[in-house]
Design brief:
Blueprint lengths: L2 H10 L4 H4 L2 E2 L5 H9 L4 H9 L8 H8 L3 H24 L1 E3 L24 E3 L20 E3 L20 E3 L20 E3 L20 E3 L19 E3 L23 E3 L20 E3 L20 E3 L20 E3 L8 H11 L7 E5 H7 L9 E4 L10 E5 L16 E6 L9 H11 L7 E7 L15 H16 L4 E7 L1 H8 L6 E5 L16 H16 L4 E6 L3 H19 L9 E5 L7 H6 L3 H19 L4
Parallel strand pairs: 2-3, 3-4, 4-5, 5-6, 6-7, 7-8, 8-9, 9-10, 10-11, 11-12, 12-13, 13-14, 16-17, 16-18, 18-19, 19-20, 20-21
Antiparallel strand pairs: 1-21, 15-17
Helix pairs in contact: 3-13, 4-6, 9-15, 11-12
Amino acid sequence: NHSLYIYAMMMRGSSNSSQRMRTTTMSSMKTTTRTMTENKRHHPRVANERRKGGRREKSNSFVQRVSILDDADTEENEQLDELVSRRIKKSRSTGRLDLTGLDLTEFPMEIFDVTNDDAPLTDLQISNNRIYHIPDEIGDLQLLERLGLAGNRLTKLPESVEKLKRLQGLWAHGNLLKSLPESICSCQSLRNLSVAGNRIRKLPENLSQLVALEELSVPGNQLLELPNLGKMFNLSDIDLHGNCIEDLSANGNDFQFLKALETFSLQGNRLKSIPRSLGNLKRLRSLNLAENRIQQVPEELRNLPVLTSVWLYSNDLRSLPKELQKSQSLRQLWIENNENLDKSELEAFIQNMKDARMLKTLGIDTEQARKIGGGFENMSAITVAEVPNRSDNAGYFKLVKWDGNRSALDDSKRAPVLIVSFGSAPGVPNWGGLLKKLRKRVGESEGKSYDVLYVCDVERSWYAGNKMTGNVEDEVSKRSKRLEDICSKYSKVLYLGDSMGATASLAFAEHATRVLAFCPQVDLFAASIRPSRSANWMRQYKTLLLQGALKSEADITIHTGSWTHDVDQASIVVYASEKQAEDAATKRKKRIKTKMHPVNNHRLALVLSDGDELVNIVKEAFETEYVNAIASGSD
């Protein structure tokens, strides 16, 4: 119901862009958000039906819908129709077509109406719409190199994709795909394949025929196993986190032939063992095996000459690879939340790792530290963190105190402010680099300090989990309860979140006193990045998120760039807040505002972090909460 608003923002063009790029409060957005709710008709579907112009007979219900449109709606439909047609016409000379975020429900068949005089289409982006079906004619675009289908409602891809011999990149994440067609293995030029956040249980059997493939991204699906990857010599990045894989060796997989592999993420699967052949991956730099059921790690990892980072936390380890101390490159190793590691095993491992020349960080948890007593105090690389309530299966939570190892084992020592960092879709802790930068800016001369709680969702489920019970409230309750338990120990709590993490910061805002949310997804059904869930589930989630934000007493600031999609998503929260404030029963003016930055990019936080702007935003928010904490006696 916000599609007209999206269109209006697009049609204003660059002449108004500088005027839009300013700080926007609730009152300044009132006219915009009211307009959004008044325009409820999904005109792009109407326009799309009309564009097909006789390709199929219109249904009676469709004719009835058209008949009740008023003149204003009809005019806006025609304007969108003209916009799409104009872009298609332009693509005839440029070879590039961008129909992203137009709320289309059907694929525009005019794309295929080409002549010999037209430039061949090489780049087609039709992501962030509501398209349910890709026609077989897609295979006629035989010179296509890049195809963006992300954020639609696709349940399958046509077999005709096999004709796309020049296709180099396919982005179909955030759909409802249950499988990929076997014919995709004929796309011999394919370098990037991204199908994250779908419902895929099995990859094509002949995937190894994609010999040019460099990046395979399938996180947040339901994979049970991998096909034989054979000799995919160019494959450099494999991301499989948040699946259900139990055995990497299934189907005869021998990873020693993946000569170019640099990053391998298997976090959040069901692995019990790791094949020794991983020790032959001479270019491997990053290996993420966290949140599995692994009992033992092969000593062969010591043979990897450029391996710098290994994640082993939250497994079932009984022993640790002592030979890792011989690694000439390892800089970061995390082993927290492995409850079956006994005292002797931990002591022997830590003693050996003292000889690891390049090691900068060895992460252990408070329970492990208590097991070994003071055996870690003379090793500067060790960092001790608390892993709260480890048995409730609520996901990744790690509390790092300001004083680090000095206060890690003392539950009574806490900083005045807790900063909660919500991870985004990649499923690993982020904001760590910025918070280290903030620590240097804050300094300790005035006694200012903060503890940090890192929270992640490895399942790419928008912090709801993938149990698919149909009851959103039950699905998010575990994380909410754990957040409440931790945040209640602090008088002031500052939330930080980007994209999916920003969504979580709003949904769980009742446990915070201040929230900085960067480009959140609010209405997941209309979002450019979203989980593979039903429309009904997404509506429930939106309701739950708004309830969480509106009942919170926190000061909430939603930061967006100038991209209309992100502005639209933020406006939903602002409008809901205004409606609540207009209610006579509401005694307090809602403290929810937005700030728009001159950045036309969803990765706003990343762009702002390149300079000092992001750290200054967080610093100001922290210092406000610090002053409030001291004033309330929380020292």
